Amino acid sequence: MTQDYSKYTDEDRNVWKTLFERQQKNLPGKAHPEYLKCLNQLSDVLHPGKIINFNELNECLMAENGWSVVVVPGLIPVDDFFKLLSEKKFCSSTWLRKMDQLDYLEEPDMFHDIFGHIPLLMNSNYARFVEEFGKLGVEYGHNKTIEKQLQRLYWFTVEFGLIRQNQDTQIYGAGIISSAGETDHIFEDDIEVLPYDVEKVVNNDFITSEIQTRYYEIETFEQLFNSVVKLQQSLMEELNV
Questions:
Q1: Mean pLDDT over the full length of the chain
Q2: Burial of 43 (0-12, 13-18, 19+ CB in 10 A)
Q3: Which of 5, 83, 119, 186 is least surrounded by CB atoms within 10 angstroms?
Q4: What are the residue ranges spanned by the domains of the chain?
Q5: Architecture of the domain made up of 8-232
Q6: Is 218 helix (H, G, I), strand (E, B) or coil?
Q7: Residue burial 86-111, b: 16+ Cβ < 10 Å; e: rest
């Protein structure tokens, strides 16, 4: 599949601009500076004035850490998802929500996929984490218990991860960064923020249909990468017993 750029409508362009500008104003002081730095690095091709062109974006991603974006029709089989990540290919849809869906979607659209997920792939430790996560899925995804654990890891890091910065809690997870409501929710009083521990994360269930109340906070992106290496070692030891 490819991105058919000619099919975008005026409403699509307005949705992209509205969502982008809203989060651009909302994220400073809430999102981790590294995300904002990476977003700025991509500003020539990723900005509110024009819907993202995947060909232009891929040139930037490939030049930095060898990643690219591939078009998918929507949610894909988990085996395919793991394989693509292991090959440094991130999945994205090409459709955008409507103006009356700005604040809630059941299935992620292109704004979530690109604005939320892609900038941090410019960070080497984060990009290595996602790649190694994909490789773990390829190697162990046939085991349904491990597949579930990896889904939990992805949920509490890539989608809803928090990070410590100068004694403050900040955001790096795409599910938060791409949503104004989720971004503001993080700084309310009714959430629980726990220190990141990969063994606890992979054994913590989640419910996709409810707003999050529990989050895990990493100290650095290097810690995140090291945790997937640790998980791989644990799985090797466990399965060789």
A1: 94
A2: exposed
A3: 5
A4: 8-232
A5: Orthogonal Bundle (1.10)
A6: strand
A7: bebbbbbbbebbeeeebeeeeebbbb
